[in-house]
Write a sequence for this structure.
């Protein structure tokens, strides 16, 4: 394979929004070997710092929902519509890995055809691997790289219930895709999916009555709950990814949420919260509660996060990780 | 004819040979010699651009024009194809699906030019879209409008061409994609129900004509090497069909419920190694569908001994025709009543198959029928799984394939010595077809063409039958590409699920541990898991090999990007780079590897993507040599049945490229 470009060169090209730097950068941030991992961290730290000040028009949108809800088909429809509006789009799609063999089948692109000849679209599929909580780490890294170059970053993950929690911190707008017959109100509440998403979609509206029913269930459920802390009330949009019905309405809802966040100052705040959640999760995943204790526990972590309001997530993980390692190394070496 | 015992011999089934290549003119000559040799029906193989609705000068047609069949772009082509073949006396089977309405329109128009009225035509359009999504791969439009086109053709032919079989429900292709007999029966029945229900519910024909429609539905079956079971399968299908006609569609006349079917015997089991053995396989398979009078096929076409090597030459096809003639005219097969009536062995197996198939059929119906089970990938996933089991059984020698995984010690075959023992279509075929097409376009009346296309569009938007405006378009000089573009515009294009699911291998010791460990160890050295792109460039729809490679790669721990059939070389190069894969595996069986592999290499080079490429498929030795010289790292053909070894070598290739070897 070709000589790996230096961090400096990659950073420069990414900040110039050079599409050809995206694939090598994504390969680098996926690399677990010591030296590449260090370089990746430096790249991500500097990229994230640069993006803090970047044009607020860029946004990250998460699509999550049960298997087969139509996320990929919807993604394809969204990409095409965004492209026709002149916006460039980067996509990360996360697919499950086999627990037993580690292998994975990344097949989503059968339904996502828009990127064929168009430089304004980039698609990277990722295997969830065995990372569980660590899933967010790889996805966040990929989203950071893509955000440097593309106007809109779309993140697709499968799941009902848990994965929203993983994705929410790394996107500006979380969209939950439900399909007709997805369940009644009670099930939505049990699965805990009513709280986090900013926009709800009932896909397959072409299926008629069943879609209407699901739409009503969701609306009823949301009517019960309070609006988000910033006063945003999550809308429910009926779409058909297949025939294109409602895609414009969905894009409007996404834009409205984006505008709401910009006006309320919520976007920056949410990115900070996302950063904090990411740092906590990554440290927990790497060093366990043992390591967290060595840092001084949750209060110490909170203090550090507050104190370093402008540090990047990737930078903090690196820095705090080093501290944890040192602390652990002092009294007795950490057992493997 | 009268035999020794003084009883009448049965009339033999129709003898067919599936053929066509290069041009309408060349294929016409071939058909006429075949008829002169005693073939009794025609079976037209169209090239892939014609089957997928592209004219010869479309970029996607590159490398495919006239290769695996005859290109038919307009009325002059169709007329040339049947020159001096009187269509009122011919029984013509056309293997055409997504563009079936159009090719039938051209056929009707050509007949009209010969002075033959549509009512006098006899034959079959394959026209089965469900099995295209599941196996054959020449679909174009989404399921719903595709079913609508089929329904239109049924409604049209039942009045206008009463002896036409507007659709041939195919289980043949399902077995070629790995289906078990139970799956073959169940999915074919589900498919037939989907079509009949659509015709009934759309109200395209009056209710009292439904029995006639039912009677016009014919089938196209496979016959594999387990020929006793195949006899039972055909009998089970006949019983189920009868039952369906009676119970679901209220067909009271038993004659109208007769199960009519044609056959092409199994090709999937025909081998590259010791290819002369294939003749014996073909004979036994032919017995499976002729032995039992009750379940005897109406028409039969046999592949040739060199099936796994490449396209058959006229002599190869003649040899297969002779098998049929000897079976029908020399043996006493046709002198007897059904040989198996009263056989409790055959009866028991038939009943077993019928019962199991009924259960699987009910499952499919419960999820909404054939179309739903295409869209949610249920049937396709079952087929890929069955095929995985077949491939593994051969690998582990649980299933014997003589000359492949057993009895491999052999004398060199005189049949494959010396010059190439296959038909090679000259590259000039493409150029000449493009020239003919351009000449045709320049001599037709453009205003007529525009009017005809507008008429077609309007008719379809209004929900009118597709056939009359298509026949008008044929006379006006519309081309295959133009007709198809009009429909593509209206209906959009579809990509079917690949059937390769995220779920991993079966548990336990599956003999893959060694490779899996290598893959795992390599991931540490690469920094991330080995990622492979399995790509199918061009119009080739043979997906079995790509699917099985993808499944195995997944099961040995690789991260696999497989995006299904029909991608352009540029799309493949682009996703290899964007996805950050370590290796690309291309699968091409249609014979267009010469052009397409080089195009992929070129696209990679111009993108600056340095990723090794391996290739598999029907690749003659000389071509393999050329591909290796062009930079391909490894080439595989059907004789490389050991997928474990292939995976091991893919790991080698990645190691070598990464300088880790
Ligand atoms: C099964 C089959 C079909 C099935 C395909 C089902 C499916 N979904 O795949 C059906 C019935 C649909 C079919 C249709 C047609 N077929 Co066909 N088919 C075959 C057949 C009998 C077997 C191929 C197969 O699936 N083998 C099993 C798989 C597992 O093996 P494989 O693909 O060879 O893969 C192995 C190796 O090659 C290698 N490999 C393959 N790909 C890759 C990729 C990588 C990365 C690696 C590492 C290795 C690798 O590893 C595999 C393991 O052993 C061959 C003849 C033969 N016996 O080989 C003809 C054959 C390929 N078909 C042929 C033709 C002409 C057609 C049609 C075009 C006919 C027509 N005019 O309409 C149609 C249309 C198909 C289309 N849309 O393109 C010709 C091609 C002629 C040529 N190359 O010159 C052949 C050779 C038959 C012949 N002699 O005429 N076919
Ligand atoms: N009727 C209808 N079907 C749809 C629509 N959108 C998607 N589908 C179908 O739903 C199925 C699943 O679609 P995908 O887009 O793969 O769904 P997904 O949520 O990405 O699935 P996973 O990634 O496997 O979780 C496919 O058969 C689609 O054709 C829609 O708007 N209407
Ligand atoms: Mg998906």
């Amino acid at each position: 394979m070709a000589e790996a470009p230096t961090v400096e060169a990659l950073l420069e090209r990414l900040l110039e929004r050079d599409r050809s730097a995206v694939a090598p950068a994504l390969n680098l941030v996926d690399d677990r070997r010591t030296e590449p991992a260090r370089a990746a961290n430096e790249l991500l730290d500097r990229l994230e710092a640069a993006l803090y000040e970047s044009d607020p028009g860029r946004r990250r949108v998460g699509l999550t929902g049960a298997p087969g809800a139509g996320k990929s088909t919807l993604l394809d429809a969204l990409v095409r519509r965004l492209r026709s509006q002149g916006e460039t789009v980067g996509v990360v799609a996360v697919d499950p890995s086999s627990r037993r063999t580690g292998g994975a089948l990344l097949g989503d692109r059968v339904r996502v055809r828009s990127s064929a000849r168009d430089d304004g679209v980039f698609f990277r599929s990722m295997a969830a691997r065995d990372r569980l909580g660590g899933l967010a780490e790889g996805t966040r890294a990929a989203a950071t790289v893509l955000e440097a170059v593309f106007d809109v970053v779309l993140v697709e993950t499968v799941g009902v219930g848990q994965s929203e929690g993983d994705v929410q911190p790394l996107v500006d707008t979380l969209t939950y895709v439900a399909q007709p017959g997805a369940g009644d109100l009670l099930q939505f509440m049990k699965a805990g999916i009513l709280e986090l998403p900013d926009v709800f979609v009932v896909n397959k509206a072409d299926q008629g009555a069943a879609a209407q029913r699901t739409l009503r269930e969701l609306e009823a459920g949301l009517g019960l709950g309070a609006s988000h802390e910033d006063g945003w009330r999550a809308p429910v949009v009926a779409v058909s990814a297949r025939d294109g019905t409602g895609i414009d309405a969905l894009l409007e809802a996404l834009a409205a949420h984006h505008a709401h966040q910009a006006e309320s100052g919520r976007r920056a705040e949410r990115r900070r919260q996302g950063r904090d959640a990411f740092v906590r999760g990554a440290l927990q995943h790497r060093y366990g509660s043992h390591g967290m204790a060595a840092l001084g526990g949750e209060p110490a972590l909170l203090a550090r996060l507050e104190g370093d309001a402008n540090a990047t997530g990737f930078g903090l993980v690196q820095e705090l990780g080093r501290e944890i390692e040192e602390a652990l190394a002092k009294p007795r070496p950490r057992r493997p | 004819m009268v035999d020794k015992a003084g009883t009448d011999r049965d009339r033999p089934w129709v003898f067919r040979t599936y053929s066509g290549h290069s041009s309408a003119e060349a294929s016409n000559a071939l058909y006429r010699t075949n008829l002169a040799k005693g073939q009794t029906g025609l079976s037209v193989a169209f090239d892939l651009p014609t089957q997928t609705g592209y004219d010869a000068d479309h970029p996607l047609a590159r490398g495919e024009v006239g290769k695996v069949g005859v290109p038919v772009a307009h009325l002059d082509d169709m007329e040339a194809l049947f020159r001096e073949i009187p269509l009122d006396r011919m029984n013509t089977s056309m293997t055409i699906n997504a563009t079936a309405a159009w090719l039938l329109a051209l056929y009707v128009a050509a007949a009209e030019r010969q002075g033959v009225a549509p009512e006098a035509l006899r034959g079959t359009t394959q026209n089965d879209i469900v099995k295209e999504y599941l196996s054959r791969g020449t679909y174009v439009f989404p399921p719903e409008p595709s079913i609508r086109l089929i329904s239109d053709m049924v409604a049209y032919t039942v009045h206008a061409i009463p002896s036409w079989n507007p659709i041939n429900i195919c289980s043949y292709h399902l077995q070629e994609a790995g289906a078990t007999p139970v799956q073959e029966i169940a999915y074919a029945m589900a498919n037939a129900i989907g079509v009949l229900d659509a015709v009934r519910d759309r109200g395209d024909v009056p209710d009292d004509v439904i029995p006639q429609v039912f009677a016009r539905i014919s089938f196209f079956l496979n016959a594999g090497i387990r020929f006793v079971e195949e006899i039972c399968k055909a009998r089970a299908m006949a019983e189920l069909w009868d039952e369906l006609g009676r119970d679901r569609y209220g067909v009271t006349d038993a004659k109208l419920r007769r199960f009519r079917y044609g056959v092409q015997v199994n090709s999937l089991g025909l081998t590259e190694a010791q290819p002369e053995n294939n003749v014996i396989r073909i004979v036994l398979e032919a017995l499976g569908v002729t032995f039992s009078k009750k379940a005897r096929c109406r028409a039969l076409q046999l592949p040739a001994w060199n099936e796994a090597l490449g396209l058959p030459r006229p002599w190869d096809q003649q040899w297969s025709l002779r098998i049929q003639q000897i079976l029908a005219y020399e043996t006493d097969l046709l002198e007897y009543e059904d040989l198996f009536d009263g056989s409790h062995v055959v009866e028991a197996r038939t009943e077993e198959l019928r019962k199991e198939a009924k259960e699987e059929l009910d499952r499919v119906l419960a999820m909404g029928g054939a179309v739903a089970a295409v869209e949610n990938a249920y049937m396709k996933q079952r087929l890929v799984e069955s095929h995985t089991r077949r491939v593994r059984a051969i690998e582990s020698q649980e299933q014997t394939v003589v000359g492949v995984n057993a009895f491999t010690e052999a004398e060199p075959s005189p049949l494959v010595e010396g010059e190439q023992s296959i038909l090679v279509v000259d590259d000039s075929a493409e150029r000449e077809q493009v020239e003919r097409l351009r000449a045709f376009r320049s001599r037709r009346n453009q205003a007529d063409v525009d009017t005809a296309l507008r008429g077609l569009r309007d008719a379809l938007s209004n929900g009118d039958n597709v056939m009359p405006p298509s026949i008008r378009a044929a006379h006006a000089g519309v081309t295959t590409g133009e007709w198809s573009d009009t429909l593509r515009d209206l209906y959009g294009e579809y990509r079917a699920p690949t059937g390769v699911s995220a779920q991993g291998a079966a548990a336990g010791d599956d003999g893959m541990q060694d490779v899996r460990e290598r893959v795992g160890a390599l991931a540490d050295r690469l920094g991330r898991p080995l990622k492979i792109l399995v790509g199918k460039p061009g119009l080739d729809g043979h997906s079995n090999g790509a699917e099985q490679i993808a499944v195995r790669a997944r099961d040995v721990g690789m991260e696999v990007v497989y995006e299904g059939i029909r991608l352009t070389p540029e799309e493949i190069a682009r996703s290899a780079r964007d996805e950050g894969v370590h290796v690309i595996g291309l699968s091409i069986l249609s014979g267009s590897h010469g052009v397409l592999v080089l195009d992929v290499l070129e696209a990679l080079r111009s993108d600056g993507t340095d990723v090794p490429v391996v290739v598999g498929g029907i690749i003659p030795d000389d071509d393999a040599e050329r591909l290796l010289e062009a930079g391909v790292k490894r080439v595989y053909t059907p004789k490389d049945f050991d997928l474990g070894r292939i995976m091991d070598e893919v790991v080698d290739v990645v190691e070598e490229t990464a300088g880790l070897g």
User: Anything to note?
Assistant: Chain B has a mean pLDDT of 95. The domain at 513-657 of chain B is CATH 3.40.50.280 (Rossmann fold). Residues 105 and 196 of chain B are 22 Å apart (CA to CA).
